[in-house]
């Protein structure tokens, strides 16, 4: 074993959880792909801001000025984090789902939308319109480029948008972003990148990749819940009705009898009605800055642990990894174990070993079911282990040991199904 790489610490490093026996054990959180633990640097930054937070853009008081400055500075940090153009707008949202829905509501009339059908539901479902094409995801990145080319060749004349993911939340596999964006560009289409799963693992550079919009979520990037972002070209967002109507999104409101005259604000405020989440946005910005300063260590840590995890999983009898392309991936691995219920395994991992994994279809039902079938399983649910800055070699080794023991000897306890969940 090599010396572990030092990565930015998370606040939950020493967390212990009870086993079904009542004994306490260090928590092995192997569910970073759902939500990542908060960085210690983020906690410190939030602690520092809490006495100062006040209404953003709305007060003359000193604390309001501090909050407004912190909030506006965060836009520049996020712009740098994704390599955006200076003219791109940075709209703060609640999360990636919110960002993608905002973009979907802001498309020019009759925009043709093309995407792959293995997307997370947040990227799969928001698009409405006369021409939305959900292309069946092919078996290789090269075929994905060809399939996109064919779909765009059949798209009607007019505005076009291609929606792609950076890394699959089911398999962690990396998508050929630049190649897909180049095809989109040839067909006069804009590109929106769902970077919810990519952003915690790899640097993003939308300018050099020729991507027009990018979305991400703070809670997957080692900041708490409640802040996300949509970054990209301002014109469509500027021409659209505000996503939410209310204070902050308006410059003037006047009445004339019982009629109203409303002058909406320009972007980004146009789509940020209501009091902004300055604490969440600051946390997100600090997380981005902390990560961006340590990419080399973060990638080395992940590559070493992912290798250890996949090597160990290969030793578990009956285990098959799910894969779209059989290609390079970030630290996310989904799998099925022949003859074993994913929910029961996940429950036993938690109750008997203090390990948190995800079971189910990961808000990507089409992808998960298709990949299970491809893996020769008739199950509807898979297991997913995902690693990140909170992961240690001991967590990985514990998971591999636990799976081998559960598959070979069965669980040590009896389980019953309660509201769809197995409990000891
Ligand atoms: N896209 C991908 C690839 C994701 O993994 C997720 C979260 N699982 C989302 C979008 C949605 O993110 P959020 O729940 O933060 O809106």
From TrEMBL:
SUPFAM superfamilies: PLP-dependent transferases
The family this protein is said to belong to: Belongs to the class-V pyridoxal-phosphate-dependent aminotransferase family. Csd subfamily.
UniProt keyword Calcium, yes or no: no
Domain Aminotransferase class V: 29-399
Residues in the signal sequence: none
Keyword Transferase listed: yes
Lineage: Bacteria, Bacillati, Actinomycetota, Actinomycetes, Pseudonocardiales
Cofactor(s) recorded in Swiss-Prot or TrEMBL: pyridoxal 5'-phosphate
Catalytic activity: (sulfur carrier)-H + L-cysteine = (sulfur carrier)-SH + L-alanine
GO MF assignments: transaminase activity
Protein name per its UniProtKB record: Aminotransferase class V-fold PLP-dependent enzyme
Keywords, comma-separated and alphabetical: Aminotransferase, Pyridoxal phosphate, Transferase
């Amino acid at each position: 074993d090599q010396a572990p790489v030092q990565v930015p610490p998370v606040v939950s490093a020493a967390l212990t959880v009870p086993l079904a026996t009542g004994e306490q054990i260090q928590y092995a959180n192997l569910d970073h792909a759902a939500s990542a633990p908060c960085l210690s640097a983020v906690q410190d930054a939030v602690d520092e801001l809490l006495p100062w937070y006040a209404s953003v853009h709305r007060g003359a008081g000193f604390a309001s000025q501090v909050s407004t400055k912190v909030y506006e500075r965060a836009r520049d940090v996020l712009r740098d984090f994704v390599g955006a153009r200076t003219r791109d707008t940075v709209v703060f949202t609640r999360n990636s789902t919110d960002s993608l829905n905002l973009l979907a509501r802001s498309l020019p009339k009759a925009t043709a939308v093309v995407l792959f059908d293995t997307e997370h539901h947040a990227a799969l479902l928001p698009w409405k319109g006369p021409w939305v094409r959900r292309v069946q995801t092919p078996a290789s990145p090269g075929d994905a480029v060809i399939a996109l080319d064919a779909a765009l060749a059949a798209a009607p004349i007019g505005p076009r948008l291609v929606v792609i993911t950076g890394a699959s939340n089911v398999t962690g596999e990396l998508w050929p972003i630049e190649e897909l964006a180049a095809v989109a560009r040839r067909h006069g289409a804009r590109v929106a990148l769902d970077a919810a799963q990519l952003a915690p693992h790899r640097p993003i550079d939308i300018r050099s990749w020729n991507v027009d919009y990018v979305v991400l979520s703070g809670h997957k990037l080692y900041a708490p819940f409640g802040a996300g972002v949509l970054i990209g070209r301002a014109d469509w967002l500027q021409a659209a009705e505000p996503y939410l109507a209310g204070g902050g999104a308006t410059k003037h409101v006047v009445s004339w009898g019982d009629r109203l005259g409303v002058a909406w604000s320009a972007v980004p405020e146009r789509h940020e009605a209501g009091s902004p989440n300055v604490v969440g946005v600051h946390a997100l910005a600090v997380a981005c800055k902390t990560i961006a300063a340590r990419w080399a260590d973060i990638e080395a840590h992940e590559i070493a642990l992912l290798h250890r995890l996949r090597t160990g999983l290969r030793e578990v009898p009956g285990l098959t990894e799910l894969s779209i392309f059989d290609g390079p991936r970030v630290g996310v691995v989904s799998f099925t174990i022949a003859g074993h219920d994913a929910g029961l395994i996940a429950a036993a991992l938690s109750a008997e070993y203090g390990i948190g994994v995800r079971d189910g279809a990961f808000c990507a039902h089409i992808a998960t079911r298709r990949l299970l079938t491809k893996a020769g399983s008739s199950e509807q649910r898979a297991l997913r282990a995902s690693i990140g800055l909170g992961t240690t070699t001991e967590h990985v080794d514990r998971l591999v040991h636990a799976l081998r023991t559960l598959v070979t000897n069965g669980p040590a306890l009896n389980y019953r199904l309660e509201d769809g969940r197995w409990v000891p």
